[in-house]
């Protein structure tokens, strides 16, 4: 089973990620190929998935049903997406950051620390959003385009800015 996941992940990185975008002529065919390939290596909570062209993902993310990963997004290990998550293009979700505690050791040699990211159900993440390690985004929230999310977001909040702050409630 692990071999099938590894092979399907390699095929995704080598081929599927480069298939034409969904909005192109016959894009629904390319989307179907990309999604079928990804389902072989992803940890899925359910059915329907939409992965846009260029989305770089790792096999150890968890994706809820009916979620969409935006074009050219970057989502690596330790991310859990709920159901009905809508993601714009160029979203980046990070789970690792450099350790900088010891000034006597170069930052490059201090390693990194890992903090998982959790995104609830029915969340809309706008284009060019950056979500930093350890952040949780509550269900029903909206993250405005271009925001940098440095702290967790409660349920049903609309946040935007750099750093992202609560602007309103839904």
TrEMBL record:
EC number per UniProt: 2.3.1.-
GO molecular function: O-acyltransferase activity
Lineage: Bacteria, Pseudomonadati, Pseudomonadota, Gammaproteobacteria, Vibrionales
Pfam families: Hexapep (PF00132), Hexapep_2 (PF14602)
Protein source organism: Grimontia celer
Similarity comment: Belongs to the transferase hexapeptide repeat family.
Enzyme class: transferase
Origin: domain of life: Bacteria
Signal sequence, start to end: none
Name of the protein in its database record: Putative acetyltransferase
Keywords: Acyltransferase, Repeat, Transferase
InterPro entries: Hexapep (IPR001451), Hexapep_transf_CS (IPR018357), Hexapeptide_acetyltransf (IPR051159), Trimer_LpxA-like_sf (IPR011004)
């Amino acid at each position: 089973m692990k071999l099938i996941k590894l092979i399907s992940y390699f095929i995704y990185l080598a081929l599927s990620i480069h298939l034409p975008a969904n909005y192109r002529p016959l894009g629904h065919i390319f989307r179907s190929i990309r999604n079928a390939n990804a389902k072989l290596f992803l940890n899925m909570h359910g059915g329907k998935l939409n992965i846009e062209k260029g989305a770089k993902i790792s096999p150890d993310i968890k994706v809820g049903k009916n979620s969409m990963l935006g074009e050219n997004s970057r989502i690596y290990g330790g991310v859990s997406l709920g159901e009905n998550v809508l993601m714009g293009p160029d979203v980046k979700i990070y789970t690792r950051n450099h350790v900088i505690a010891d000034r006597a050791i170069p930052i490059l040699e201090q390693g990194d620390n890992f903090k998982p990211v959790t995104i609830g159900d029915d969340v809309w993440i706008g284009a060019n959003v950056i979500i930093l390690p350890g952040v949780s985004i509550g269900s029903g929230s909206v993250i405005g385009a271009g925001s940098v999310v440095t702290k967790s977001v409660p349920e049903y909040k609309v946040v935007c800015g750099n750093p992202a702050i609560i602007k309103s409630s839904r």
